[in-house]
Amino acid sequence: MNPPPWTAQVKWSADGLVPAIAQDARSGRVLMLAWMNAESLAASLAEGRAVYWSRSRGRLWRKGEESGHIQRLQEVRLDCDGDALLLQVEQVAGIACHTGRESCFFSPLQGDRFVAVDPVLKAASEIYEQAGSAKPGSGVE
């Protein structure tokens, strides 16, 4: 079977990866950054939900597989250089970050340091207790 034509349009890294930015399709807020390979992008398109490549686990990672906070895929865009993807998503339950926040980008630079300013919507311990698994130590769900 031949790969889909879009695979040739993406400038994959030497490791076969491309950064993927997840953005809330309604609000426009940037939710997170993850990595995709051709298999995870194809799975995302087929399943209608964000599927990333977990570098720490060395396998596909379906966003929300442990937390329940899946990302329903609305649209995928390729940037002008072909080396980054933008995923427009509907973030289920409004939590994208493993810390229990809406976005992983919750710490703006204030003076000489980054400060966490966004509220924790749900404690990570509660999220992963409900899911019946401990949060992996990688820092990435």
Biggest β-sheet, characterized? 4 strands, mixed
Number of strands: 8
DSSP helix fraction? 10-25%
Report the portion of residues in β strands.
25-35%
What class do helices, strands and sheet pairing give? alpha+beta
Query: Rg, please?
Result: 15 Å
Adjacency order of strands in the biggest sheet: 2-1-6-5
Count of DSSP helices?
2
Provide the residue-averaged pLDDT: 93
Contiguous uncertain segments of 5+ residues? 136-141
The best one-word shape is globular
| Helix-strand string | EEHEEEEEEH
> What is the distance, rounded to the nearest whole angstrom, between the alpha carbons of the first and last residues?
32 Å
Question: Could you characterize what this model shows?
Answer:
The protein has helices at residues 38-47, 124-130, and strands spanning 18-24, 30-36, 51-54, 59-62, 71-78, 85-91, 109-110, 113-114. It is of the alpha+beta class and 141 residues long. It starts with 17 loop residues before the first strand and ends in an 11-residue tail after the last helix. The model is unreliable at 136-141 (pLDDT under 50).
List the helices and strands and how they pair.
Elements: E1 18-24, E2 30-36, H1 38-47, E3 51-54, E4 59-62, E5 71-78, E6 85-91, E7 109-110, E8 113-114, H2 124-130
Parallel strand pairs: 1-6
Antiparallel strand pairs: 1-2, 3-4, 5-6, 7-8
List keywords for this structure.
four-stranded mixed β-sheet; two-stranded antiparallel ribbon; 2 helices; disordered C terminus; single chain
